[in-house]
Amino acid sequence: MTEIATEIDSYLQRLFPIMRSITGPGNRETLRILQELVPLEIQEYLSGKEVYDWIIPDEWQVRDAWIKDKDGNKLIDFQKCNIHLVSYSEPVHDWFTFDELKEHLHFHDEFPEAIPYYTSYYNRDWGFCVNQAQYRQLSECEGRLEIMVDSDFDPYGSLTIGELLIPGRSEQEILISTYICHPSLANDNLSGAVMTAYLARELLERELQWSYRFVWIPETIGAIAYCAMNEKAVREIDAGLVVTTVGGPGTLGYKQSWQKDHYINSLIEKTFCESGKEFVTYPFDIHGSDERQFSSQGFRINMATVCKDRYYEYPQYHTSLDDLSFVNGRQIEETLEIYLGVIDKLEGRRVYRSKVPNCEIMLSQHDLYPKRGGLFRPAVNGYTELDLRMWVLFYNDGKVSVDEIADILGVEANLIEDECRTLENKGVIVRV
Ligand code: ZN
Asked: Which of 107, 140, 228, 332 ranks highest by number of CB atoms within 10 Å?
């Protein structure tokens, strides 16, 4: 067991029991604990604020929730397991028959021992999630059951996010996003929130080429609010990673960003191939996490995800069985290494930008047009020296890297790098 794995385990233990949701004090507490690892800034977006097609909801807080039988025995207790309560449940304190209560109870069809995780963010309601034995016990109770949900909604509250900007030599940013809105669920997504902090901590120690924008946000509404509040900066971003479900015992995998051929996908694949680890490839899909917001029409960021037991795929997903017996520091560290490998690859990208993007440059004016046929290098893969020069000028738009141009043309990367140096010395392109 490495030092980092042990340390991650201790953070998992501390953070797991906290009641988190899309808003509320548990999210602040979570971010404050993560501040021990990295100097992330906690920001508050006020409830009621319009963010594109959405409105930041009232802040929800819950203190207690339970179901008691007629003799006062607590049969279901939120204090023992916070996913017993449907997230965003409205307050209630009343007596119900089982028949009346039934429509507010949820259990898992397939796994008798699992308590399922439910939310009701945008439909005011209340509910309890139980395992099948608890459901049976409630159904067999004589008389009425006492229901108590001690919660409230604060219209003057806020939605809490964490943000950390790590500057590199270039102002071009990579977005790294994770979500903090799930209560006691380990792989989805306490693993992601913690691993992201460790990733940021590592990058803080490095000299970086690119700048990195890290965000810890509630899923969906948090990402939407973040885009709305930071629209200009987010629009400039080309690529990023959504960190989710990174701590299971199963296979590593990656979900491609919306443009299959984007460099973020090939860098992840190369990282996996070099690591020798098996991995599953999930093509881009409209379902998933906050890539749905960041890749939407207004932003179109290529967001990929590296995961270990991806959401939807493992049977414990969104149940009480997604706990700390399923997730641990060693597994998270394994995924962290892949993320760091991807960062190394991102950092290794050599990218140039033409100083004359409007139409072709006049090669002869810059002494770049071969004067005599004899100056041509023999064709490489069918490209003459002039061909390569023109392709390099064509692709150097500040986004495509030397390696990617080499891959496209099917030639050695050092040939492209040499050509870029020549063009740089002539002052027609600059390294980004
Ligand atoms: Zn989830």
From this structure: 332
Rounded to 5°, the CA angle 118-124-127 comes to 40
Contacts of 217 (CB under 8 A, 6+ apart): 161, 162, 177, 178, 179, 180, 223, 225, 226, 290
Residue found by looking up tokens 């259990």 in the block: 107
Could you tell me the distance, in angstroms and rounded to a whole number, from the CA of residue 157 to the centre of ligand 1? 24
Residue 286 C-alpha from the chain's centroid:
15
CA distances from 366 to 78, 356, 385, 420, 427 (A): 73, 12, 16, 14, 8
Q: For residue 169, how far is its CA from the centre of ligand 1 (angstroms)?
A: 35
144, 128 contact by CB (below 8 A): no
Does 380 have pLDDT greater than 80? no
The count of other CB atoms within 10 Å of the CB of residue 67 is 26
Q: Is the confidence at residue 227, as pLDDT, over 70? A: yes
CA of 256 to the centre of ligand 1 (A): 19
Does this model's pTM top 0.85? Answer: yes
Rounded Cα gap, residues 31 and 52, in angstroms: 25
* Residue 379 predicted with pLDDT over 80: no
Q: What's the pLDDT band for 165 if we cut at 50, 70, 90? A: very high
Give the per-residue pLDDT at 372.
Answer: 62
Distance 296 CA to ligand 1 centre (A): 20
* 47 within 8 A of 88, measured Cβ to Cβ: no
Cα of 155 to ligand 1 centre, how many Å? 25
